[in-house]
Every structure is written in structure tokens, then in C-alpha cells.
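Chapter summary example.
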Amino acid sequence: MKKDNKKSAKKWVLVLCVACLAFLVYDVTQKDVWQQLGTDGGSVQVDTGQDGAVDSQPVSGEVNANEQGSDRFYADYRIEREKTRDQSLELLQSIIDDPAADAQAKKTAQESQIVMAKNMEQELLIETLLAAKEMPDAVAFIQEGKVTVVLNDPVDDKSSGKIAEIVDGVTGVGYENVVIISRDK
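The structure predicted for these 185 residues follows.
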């Protein structure tokens, strides 16, 4: 019976991690977010430069975002990111605090908390460094060895290279694992 509890706990932790990841991916890729990114429901043309950075630009249906709308997008995203992470951390903490959970489930939950804390710290550092480089409306998020940076303005290859250098310096993911998405105004 103990073996069944251990398998059940492992499955629970795995399901929880997959659910959190799925929610984050859904939250970032849902249509409303892409509309805010500047595609307005139109098709997107993706351009990859030599450094592997991605610059997406709308082919049709440009968005006329004013400064207030731009500020709101980044503020809203940061709030949603914090809420989602707080919920995930609470779930992980409940596993750690559960006296019925086995040692492996607790260890996995603690490791997940550490990864989330590290990602949060690195994302904040990336956003702060980009703000210091006069890119205050930047949002970064880290997922499974890749970093996506959403910027307010389009960037050229030289700027993309500098952004990738900053991201790689903070995270060590490599230039090829940095995705840059530019919002069009």
C-alpha cells in the first residue's frame, strides 16, 4: 500500500507541474495576448535573424496602441504572472506541508519551488537590465531552457544581439534559445 501512495504522490506532482506549465503556455499564447502583442487577429510574419532571434510583425490589422495601453499590457502581464506563480507556489507548499505526502513528492515539490524562484529572479534581472538599456517595457519569461522577451518596439539585428547577450549572461541558455517578440504600435 505504501508503494501505491508513493506512485500516487509522484503522479500528483507530475500532473501539477504539467498543469502549471500548460496554464502558463495557454496564458501566454491565447488570442487576446497575441492581439495585445500587435497582431490584432491577423496573420503573423516571423523573421529569424542570423542570431536566432525572432521578430514577429503583423501582416494585416495593425493595432494603434497608445502609451497608456502599452503600459497596461506590461503591468497586466506582470500581475497575471505573479498571480499564476503564487498559486503554483501555494500548491507546491501544500504538498510539502502535507503529512501524508511521501518524501520523494516533497523533494520534487521543493525542487520545483527552487526552479520557480530562480526563474523569477532571472526574469526580474533581465527586465531590470533591459530597462537600464532604455527598454523599460520589456517582459521576460523563462520556460524549459528558453527565454522569451517581449518588447514594445521593433528591434534590429544589432539590438537583438545585445538583448540575447544580456539574456544569455543572466541565464546561460545560449543565444539560440532566446526568442524576441516585438509589439508593433
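To summarize the output: The beta strands are 44-48, 54-58, 139-143, 146-151, 178-182.
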